[in-house]
Structures are given as C-alpha cells and as structure tokens.
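Today's session is about reading a structure prediction critically. Students often jump straight to the picture, but the first step is always the sequence itself: look for stretches that repeat, for charged clusters, for runs of hydrophobic residues. Only then move on to the predicted structure, which in these notes is written as discrete structure tokens rather than atom positions. Here is the chain we will use throughout the hour.
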Amino acid sequence: MKQKVILLTGASSGIGFDTALMLANQGHKVYAAARRVDMMEPLREKGVVIIKMDVTDETSMVEGVNAVMEAEGRIDVLVNNAGYGYFGAVENVTMSEARRQVEVNVFGLARLCQLVLPIMRKQGSGRIVNTSSVAGRAVLPFGGWYHVSKYSVEALSDALRMEMKPFGIDVVMIEPGGIRTAWGHIAADNLAESSKGTPYESAAMNEAAMLHFAYDSKWMSSPKVVARAMSKAVNRRHPRARYRIGAFSETIVFFHWLLPAKWWDAMMRRLAKVKI
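Below is the predicted structure for this chain, in token form.
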C-alpha cells in the first residue's frame, strides 16, 4: 500500500480518533487536527502528528495546511471530520448557535477544501473525504439546524465531486447512522437545555431521554465501523461516492424515501413522544 499524506480534522475523539489510529497503522502519514490536542496525545505513539486547529478560525486552518506542506510537500487526502450536533426547536435555537453549527459543520469543511484543492490540482491527484450523515438524508424533529448543516455537506460534496473529476481529485462522502460516541449525549443535553420553559419542553425532554438511552445501548455501532469505511474511502483506487454505514443507516434512508411525507412526519412525531 502506497503511503499517503493525510490531514484529518476532528481527531480528538470517537470517529476521528479511531480513523487516525487505523490509517496510521496502515502506514500512512497522518496529521490529526482538533482543538483539544491533549486528547490526541496517545496517537503520537503511532507516529501521528498532532496539529491544533479550529475550523472556525481562518488563521488556524491556513497554518495547519501550511505545516503539513512544509513537512511533506504534498497533501494526498483531506478527511473533513470535525463537527457537532446542537438540537433544539428551530424557534428556540439562537441564531448565533445556528450560525456556529453551520460554521463548524459546513463552512469550516468548505474552507479547508478551498485550501487544499490548489495543492491537489498541482499534484494531479488527491482525495477529499467529507463526513456527512444519514441526517443529511432524513430529518428528525428538533434537529433542524443540524440537518441543515448535513444536507449542506451532501450538496456541497456532490457539486465538488463533479467539479474535481477532470483534475483527478475524488470526493467521497461518509454517511454514518447511529454510532456509539458522545455525539448523541451532547445533542440530547443541548436539546433539553434549549427547550426548558418553552411549548416544546415535554416532547423535547422525551426525545432527549430517547437519545441518551439509544446512545448508551448495544444497538449503536462502534466508531471503528466508520473508521473502516474511512479507510476504504482513502485506500481504494476507485472509491464509491458514498459509504453509508452504521446502525439504522440504510433503514432510515429507505423509509424516508418510501413513505409519503405525512406518514414520515407522523412517525417522527410519535417517536418524539416516546418515554424511556
């Protein structure tokens, strides 16, 4: 397997951490980026280079890309994995929080693509791997702004894939379903906090409890499942445009496609009222 120089964001925990570890074990030169560098220290033992990066800060992103180029002279793969979920009714989530979620999940991803694409085009090859989600294919109540961000990643990646093909640059999306990480608990806590004292409180608290229950359960897939999909996206000569993996990922997308909107809406409203 040919060694590739890889810049991977959101590597401090969960999917990003496991992916950095797996790719390093395969012999790739991995530059792992995140805000919380202390959490990535164990990766150093595997030869991973740690970079402090905030994908909402232009200077931070430019310096990170420049650091890789100064050390390696090339970037073969960019894995955009940084992101988070803030749940709450569209009416309740502040516009500043909504903007921050889109800034992290979409604009940070897009800006890093802009920074590495001239490098890859000059090389005549490269690969962009964007972490999307089944949340970019189907919508849950109280997840509006998170879904906005992931639907945006889907659209952006589709456009980028077509634009970059003539330059020998592949664009791949990873669409995880239910993955056993802290994401679900963070989203649930944000949902409970943003809904206190509002008309949505009862239903929101029920959905928050359901999220906590689900993300503690054996139903969810391990982050390693996503790391393996990331590995395929990085290593295969002709990768797929999308890798949909993890608990309920295929089921959710299938029923969202199959059911009339009214049926889907009714099912989601009923789900939000389930008490755990």
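Discussion point for the tutorial: Residues 37 and 93 are 29 Å apart (CA to CA).
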